[in-house]
Every structure is written in structure tokens, then in C-alpha cells.
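Dear colleagues,

For the upcoming journal club I promised to circulate an example of a predicted protein-ligand complex. I picked one with iron/sulfur cluster because it came up in last month's discussion. The inputs are reproduced below in full, followed by the predicted structure.
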Amino acid sequence: MVYELYQTLRAHYGDLHWWPAKTPYEVIVGAVLTQNTAWSNVEKAIANFGGELSPEYILNADMPELTDIIRPAGFFNQKAVYLKAVTAWFAGYGFDAAAVRREPPDKVRAELLSVKGVGKETADSTLLYAFNFPVFVVDAYTIRLCGRVPISAGNGYDAVKAYFEANLPHSEEVYNNFHALIVINAKEHCRKRKPLCGGCPLNERCGKRL
Ligand code: SF4
């Protein structure tokens, strides 16, 4: 069922090749900054680094400087603390994404979840999009899709994540693209209020189509 939904979305939108970032570290930064804000605000914050975005820069920046840079992403005082914390974690790997990838994903996930400001969605986005671990990311768009199609994925982050992982090929490529497809379809059609069901690629499979 969910794999058929994936194939239907992929046939419509193609392979989206997320995450929109130049480096694994930029993915980590984006995953923190996108908490409780639109991606367009994250883009403004990242642009404010003016090409200086690096783990060393964030570790060495003083708080007024860092909060000023990331201000467009909102909650900038908290997020500056979170960015320094997750960067300190990455420093434990020498800022080497390949070194992280050599570790078991469950170990890395547990480490990330112990970092201040890193919740499950941020941790899993980082694991999948920065380090290419086969970990499914659940977000509000995923929950909305489950409620509307419907998909009996259970309640709560862990249950939904486990359901998707159990019912899809164990593939980083599939998890990467499926999450991106869910997001784009939610933005283009499956909106929170007044979904635009006409033209939605899931229209024929959806129990909540209008
Ligand atoms: S048919 Fe409508 S409610 Fe169903 S997934 Fe598409 S936009 Fe959402």
C-alpha cells in the first residue's frame, strides 16, 4: 500500500534528490533551523552566513553574532544554542561525514537524540539527508497524509516511522525521495485547510478526496 503510494507520487513528481544543501554539515544546520518555521526562512538564514557556513565558524562565533545571522529562522536564541550543541557533537567525528557513516545508525541516532535541541524529526532528517542512513523521516506532512488516505500507521512518531520502514524497501534512496514527495504533495495539493484534490496524484486512492 505505502509503496504503491510512493510509486504513484514518484511517477508524478519524479526523483527530487533532497536535501537542498551543499554539504552534510549544511543539512545538519538546516535540520535545526527548519524547526517550527518555513524553509524559505531557513534559506534566508543560511544566506546570511555569506558563504562562511562551516562547523568551525559556528563553534567560534559568539552568540550575538550567531543569533543575528540566523534571526530569519525564528527562535534564534534557542537555535543558536542548538547549532553549537550539534556542531560540538559533529566535532567528535572530526567534522568528517564519512566517519559518521561508518557507525551503526542506531548508535548515531542515540547520540543525536542526546544533543540539546535535537528531537526525533531533526535526528532522522540528519541521519537520512546528511549521512545517507536508511531511516524514514516522519513529519506533520506524513501524519496528515496518513490521516487522509488513510494509512493505518499507528499513533506517534515511532509507530509511524516503524510502519513506513516495515512496508517499504529498506532503501535510503526510497526513504529520501518518499519524504520529499510527501512534502511537495502536501504543499501543492494536500494542504492543511482546503486540500486541492483535483490534480492530486493520490486522488484515486484517497478516502478523503474532496
Ligand atoms: S486527494 Fe486530497 S486529501 Fe487525498 S492526498 Fe490528495 S490532496 Fe490530500
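Two points we might discuss: The chain has twelve helices and no strands. The chain has a mean pLDDT of 97.

See you all on Thursday,
B. R.
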